[in-house]
Amino acid sequence: MAMSSFSTQLFDPQIGFNRHRPLFGWTMALVFGTGLGYFFGGAWGWLLVATVAIVLAWRTKSESVSTFLCLACLALAGWRAALLHDRNSEVLGQLKAYQDAAEVFDLKVTVSNDRQVIQRKRGGPYCRFSADDAWLPDGTEVHGTNLLIYYYDREGRFPKTGETWLLKAKLRANSHPRRMSLSARGETAQHLPQEDRLSSVEYVLAQFRNRLANHLALGVSEEEAVLTQTMVLGTRARLPYALRQRYADAGIAHIFAISGLHVGIIAGLLVWLLAWAGVRLRMRIWLLLPTLLGYLLLTGVPPSATRACLMALMYCFAPSLLRRPDGPSALFVTAALVLVIEPGWIANAGALLSFCVMGGLFLFTKPFVYFLNRFLGSPLQRTPLGEMPLARPWHVALRQYVALLIALSCAAWLAVLPLCLFFFGRVSLVGLLLNLIVPSVTMIVVWTACLSAFCGFLLPMLSEMMNRFNAFLLSAVDTLAHKALEVPGAVYELEHQPGVTVALLMGVGLIILGLWLSMHERRCRQADPLDPENFNFFPRAVSEFTQRETPF
Q1: Which of 1, 8, 3 is nearest to 517 (CA)?
Q2: pTM of this prediction?
Q3: CA–CA separation, 83 and 292 (whole Å)
Q4: C-alpha to C-alpha distance for 449 and 435, rounded to whole angstroms
């Protein structure tokens, strides 16, 4: 199929020797179908297309069956997402009517685990939280929008995580359709203890997360602790808005999103500890399963962490399923699973940014490394098959490491550029430089914070020392971000670009990359068509070394 062959050529690490990845075409059909159905609706039309495609697959010849089945997959995904679109449109219409009329209405909500009590200079504190589940007066469940509730009470009695309350809510005038803000007051609110969810697994984990957060606050101020807590436990609601905006403008806000960087650091720390304890490789991989799933639940199942954990598990367990570990295949299968379980994530900014960054790393890192090494005068080593690479001089190794850091930063920045224009209307230029340093600091902070969180149960003094060390590192990062934003032109602001413009930018980028890869393949074939090493951006021995029996 066209989609499968094009994506296979783009993602193949050995150009000219394509691997067979049929999941690419199926996943692209699922993604396109979900996107079209979620944004345009038309459930019955999609169901009709799916029925016709299935009938044609049943009646046609064998060589065309896969094409019609792929079309049926696209249509069924569009039908399921269109049902969600129609239901969301009905709910948003009711909320819009309440907003236009400035009407107070009944809203039953279950308090999420991002509950935060905020102190004000005047008027006393208030509680801000989002709703895990919400119901309108007629019993309709709210879907397709995030409800952010500002709860005011003169006596300071605020809802707790897991409790269910019946509120007299009023929508704020500046509410966005995908992120609506409501106001509620304690004088008119009613607690419904019979519907609380305090005993569920999610909220038990939330209590455990709060306890770990207290360990990370030992020996440091609240302002210093909130950075480490957000970076390790995903408690982004505790971050002050000004601090969050500063890191976003500096292009390093991703350190606060639990993603592949954090999951990889924690998984690497666990594997290292198990290897130090003498645990065999296969057992180490099996122990990763409960660890990563537990960490995913502990952080509240954000989209970026879900993507990272599922990808890591698929990559690690591929040998157990008699499959070769392959990063792009794990990314595509993860995308398919996520959209099957929750089609609404096709419009989630966190999910889109997470998947695009990972896809950009797979697409652009190797070409950038190839060109940067040629520019820096550090050509990649050629080693015959079956032999280990020779030792490199330290200056060559340093230049190759710098080339890799620059390539990773540029690849991630280029991948999210269209989405930043669509969601935020601004692009951070200094982020290209800051991301050469910040990920390395993040790795040290996350490792130290993990040890500190568990040392707090037995050795609080050791936990305090680790927290002070992390506070010093993060204060340096904060100072660096502040100084970088003082540079003229650090942030480039534009108007929010429409979705069509974003899609065209991404499509043009993929086409240009595909054409360049085809030209590179043709040039290498003309040089030496019998040497497969000409079609690889990395030397063969290095590729073999990364494919040994290791969990990553």
Answers
A1: 8
A2: 0.80
A3: 32
A4: 21
